[in-house]
Design goal:
Layout: E1 4-8, H1 12-21, E2 28-32, H2 36-44, E3 54-58, H3 66-76, E4 82-86, H4 91-100, E5 104-107, H5 112-140, E6 144-145, E7 148-149, H6 153-165, E8 172-175, H7 182-191, E9 200-204, H8 210-218, E10 219-220, E11 232-233, H9 235-239, E12 243-247, H10 254-266, E13 268-270, E14 277-279, E15 283-288, H11 292-297, H12 303-309, E16 312-315, H13 326-341, E17 347-348, H14 350-358, H15 364-378, E18 383-384, H16 395-401, H17 411-415, H18 425-439, H19 444-451, H20 455-488
Parallel strand pairs: 1-2, 1-3, 3-4, 4-5, 8-15, 8-16, 9-12, 12-15, 17-18
Antiparallel strand pairs: 6-7, 10-11, 13-14
């Protein structure tokens, strides 16, 4: 869908027939009758052919045959799949076409079922090659470490700590907000450990009802409850000598907390409805977005289990505290979803980059990924612009997520009466605009959007504020000079 396809055929009827037959698939065809035309464009713009997911060319043309055309394209763009249309089914022509760089060929008169299959296969190849190129580009980047995108020092520190504890048998508790990459770090610990050739098994404790979670974790015996027609091996057994990752452990029901504690202490498990105890050899890594110290204090989480899990603690900072990672992550997600969706977008505009850097991303990496995927699909032009990004952040949300107490000015401080002197409406407006600008890193376009005014109005307000400030300074300076004269006299 929406793939760009270049078609070269000097027969106008064939061009129209192809366009009509594939109209329902929303392909974006670009037709040429003379091969010198696209080659001329490519000589001036080396990236011209790279915008196409597929090229279809006729074999017999007056100016240049299809084999020669394929050879010329291969000089500039070696990876684009090319389908050759030919009126002959001679083997030597097919062999020559493949040697020249054709991916497939279709015999005329065109069998459109055959052509449709050839196009689907070629587009799959094009997508796979794009994904491989994106992966190669990522692997070459200095901020790609052990399969993880991490440019910020804070996240590099997390990676180094995870690698240091990998070969120990100690329990690891990973703490961080939802979407920060807790499972990514758990997998890194597993991959860097001596258990890397054993299974890595993960389960989200909050995603499974309490009644089923015990059976998932420990397994059950045949006939142990209604519907248990067969015995079931639990995840502890499934992990074997590998790693069991228990995500959102803070949501575990108290009754299961007690059973988990016993398993960790005794290294033995018992299936539901079974009396046989079996050894447990898996390493357990847990994660939560909750403050478990607070959960323990408020009697929602067992203190003894907390100490058992919290032998080594790894805290993952939220994305808003490691803004250096935002653009590398955005670029990775852009390359990934561009390859998957065959869109025309070539990257993010400067304004879009500034916009995403200054958002607080309360959903962290997961929210950023979803936003970039949406933008890649919905982008109207060659560049992803600010308007292509989800406009789901309000000034209140920006302020609340800043984490800086010095930025606490706003409606709340005004209502609380913390001012020694109530500000005038003009003063309040000036302070509010200045605060919004500070929160968005000085990006006026974003500030105007948050204030729900156009940029010209914002510029006018800033000019008025600057003028008022200068007048106030002038008045103060004049008053000081007047006092000086009085003192002299």
């Amino acid at each position: 869908m929406n793939a760009r396809i270049l078609v070269l055929d000097d027969d106008i009827d064939t061009q129209e027939l192809i366009a009509e037959r594939f109209k329902s698939r929303n392909f974006k065809f670009e037709f040429y009758s003379d091969p010198s035309e696209p080659l001329s464009i490519a000589s001036k713009d080396p990236k011209y052919f790279s915008q196409f997911a597929l090229i279809i060319t006729d074999f017999r043309m007056p100016q240049m045959d299809g084999i020669e055309f394929i050879k010329e394209i291969r000089k500039a763009s070696p990876n684009i799949p090319i389908i050759l249309m030919t009126a002959t089914n001679r083997v030597d022509v097919a062999v020559e076409a493949i040697r020249a760089g054709a991916y497939d060929f279709v015999v005329k008169p065109i069998n459109f079922s055959q052509m449709s299959l050839a196009i689907d296969r070629a587009l799959d190849l094009s997508k796979l090659r794009s994904q491989n190129e994106a992966l190669k580009s990522t692997l070459k980047s200095s901020w790609y470490t052990d399969g993880i995108i991490a440019k910020s020092q804070s996240f590099q520190n997390v990676i180094q700590l995870a690698k240091r504890v990998a070969n120990s048998s100690a329990s690891v508790l990973i703490q961080g907000e939802s979407g920060t990459g807790k499972e990514v770090i758990a997998k890194l610990i597993h991959q860097q450990s001596s258990r890397s050739d054993q299974p890595f098994v993960a389960i989200n404790c909050s995603a499974i009802p309490e009644g089923l979670l015990e059976s998932e974790l420990f397994g059950h015996a045949k006939g142990s409850f209604t519907g248990a027609s067969e015995k079931k091996i639990g995840l502890f057994e499934e992990a074997g000598n590998g790693t069991l990752f228990l995500d959102e452990i803070g949501d575990l029901h108290p009754s299961l907390q007690a059973k988990l504690l016993r398993v960790l202490q005794e290294k033995l498990i018992k299936r539901v409805g079974d009396n046989v105890e079996r050894p447990m050899n898996a390493r357990v890594i847990t994660a939560t977005h909750k403050d478990l110290v607070k959960e323990v204090r408020e009697k929602r989480f067992r203190e003894d289990l907390f100490f058992r899990l919290n032998v080594i603690q790894i805290k993952i900072p939220p994305l808003r505290e490691r803004r250096e990672d935002i653009l590398p992550l955005a670029q990775y997600f852009f390359d990934k979803y561009k390859a998957q969706n065959e869109t025309e977008a070539t990257g993010l505009s400067k304004a879009a980059m500034e916009y995403i850097i200054n958002l607080n991303w309360h959903g962290n990496v997961r929210e950023l990924e979803n936003s970039i995927e949406r933008a890649v699909i919905l982008a109207k032009g060659n560049k992803i612009e600010v308007e292509d990004m989800p406009q789901n952040e309000s000034p209140t949300r920006v302020f609340a997520g800043s984490g800086n107490k010095d930025e606490a000015f706003g409606v709340q401080s005004f209502l609380s009466g913390s001012f020694k002197k109530l500000p005038t409406l003009e003063e309040f407006s000036r302070l509010y605009v200045a605060h919004v600008l500070k929160c968005v890193g000085g990006v006026k376009e974003q500030a105007a959007r948050l204030l729900e005014i156009d940029r010209k109005t914002l510029y006018r307000k800033l000019a008025d504020h600057e003028k008022a400030h200068e007048e106030a300074l002038h008045a103060v300076n004049g008053e000081e000079k007047s006092h000086d004269r009085l003192n002299i006299n």
